[in-house]
Amino acid sequence: MNIQIHASFLPHNDPDAALAFYRDKLGFEVRNDVGYGGKRWITVGPKGQPTSIVLYPPDASPGVTDDERRTIAEMMAKGTFGIVLFATKDLDGDFEQLQGKDIEIVQEPTDQPYGVRDCAVRDPAGNMIRIQQLA
Question: For residue 64, what are the CA distances in angstroms to 10, 12, 107?
């Protein structure tokens, strides 16, 4: 089998804030921005790479109850619902750039006991983004 990751999904609760974060602060390109029923699905990804992230409105997911929507909103606010792991060759340099862009810092670059060096930030929806140093 030759399977590749094409896209992952992260929830957003403010499409304009999500777009400003991923496009303007992280430098991702916008690959799609689709509106339907007053909601937006925005596909972004690093320039020159085929993998994408679809930023989606979690309250538009079919089959989700009102109680589940409230739980999702609470988990997003705490940063425990959506998580993504990025990688870089220059963690300290990239972290320094992020600090100057008004991004919520959760953890500065740290040598983890499980053998990686990483940092953590949150996007406007509360999604945890960990950035790991490539060996």
Answer: 16, 16, 32
